[in-house]
């Protein structure tokens, strides 16, 4: 097995993230988290802070910043750590201390230090797709995000609302409910769109 990653969808309302490093990468990762949940709880540590990140910190009550070097106690009561300093030594130290406490770690440019990777995310209301290339090509993950964002209509969220309603109101037994749900979603079946995968193959020049 060469790809053993298991995607999960994390509830961010209850999670507290620690970001160590407040430069370009710290900024990018903060924006990435905020894009999914503007009220996500984040603590950021950095000796110096990127100007734009300072503006973000100042405008979000849910983000706390400490302008100093990382200390072990920063890990207290954190659920996840994103490591983004420009010192490989500091990054490794933070990772080892976090591991000792059972806290899961992402290190921006060091896959070997990561317990989890951040994915590229397609957002269509309640439909969310997370994309990974198993660390092989983040830029392809970005391209795939752009592709799926373009081809999936925004109105999919309206379809979801109707389906949710139907699902909640259905009075039949489970077998009947499943049958009916499959029937009313038949328009989304791949078999109904034979041209789709050919177009996809052409786009990515796959033989
Ligand atoms: C998906 C996304 C999420 C996010 O970070 O938010 C993400 N990277 C994104 C973009 C991106 N990152 C990089 C480029 C420059 C082009 C290139 O190198 O390809 C671009 C493209 C761009 O910016 O346009 C540089 C880079 N990234 C990593 C390395 C180190 C290495 O590979 O060894 C290097 C080289 C550093 C160097 O050379 O110095 C490593 C990782 N990057 C990952 C995630 C994880 C694997 C995800 C997967 O399985 O695919 C992993 C393993 C760890 C992690 O960071 O979680 C986000 C897309 C957001 C979007 O949707 O737009
Ligand atoms: N900028 C990018 O897009 C990019 C892309 C790929 C990889 N990287 C790598 O990622 C790392 C970070 O890049 P960057 O551009 O964010 O660097 P940066 O210099 O902008 O930021 C580094 C941050 O780490 C902080 N820091 C250093 N030692 C610390 C400590 N002991 N405790 C707390 N904070 C500490 C600094 O104060 C600063 O806020 C570098 O190793 C870089 O090579 C960067």
Automatic annotation (TrEMBL):
Origin: domain of life: Bacteria
Domain Siroheme synthase central residues, every copy: 125-146
Class of enzymatic activity (EC top level): oxidoreductase
Pathway where this protein functions: Porphyrin-containing compound metabolism; siroheme biosynthesis; sirohydrochlorin from precorrin-2: step 1/1
Catalyzed reactions per annotation: precorrin-2 + NAD(+) = sirohydrochlorin + NADH + 2 H(+)
MF GO annotations: ferrochelatase activity; precorrin-2 dehydrogenase activity
Pfam families for the chain: NAD_binding_7 (PF13241), Sirohm_synth_M (PF14824)
UniProt protein name: precorrin-2 dehydrogenase
EC number(s) recorded for this UniProt protein: 1.3.1.76
Species for this entry: Flavobacterium profundi
PANTHER family in alphabetical order: SIROHEME BIOSYNTHESIS PROTEIN MET8
GO biological process per UniProt: siroheme biosynthetic process
